[in-house]
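Morning!

This is the sequence you dropped in the shared folder:
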Amino acid sequence: MHDAITVEKAGKPAAAICTEPFVPTGRSIAKIRGIDGYPFAVVTHPVGSVEDGVVMERAHQALPRVLEILLAK
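The structure's back. Tokens below.
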């Protein structure tokens, strides 16, 4: 979330992807960084300890939301 907002503030479109348990944290970071309600994609947790194929599935699931976020800018 922090990185995506930093990129946005630099004038570049960005989309954050967050896992389910970190949604409240992501919302808090966005609010603290001055973009309350910043949109982001949410995927199932975890992503770091699963096989590559599972990560790819989650990325494909997030893609429509990521595109929606990027194309809205």
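Headline: The first helix runs from residue 2 to 9.

More detail when I'm at my desk.
O.
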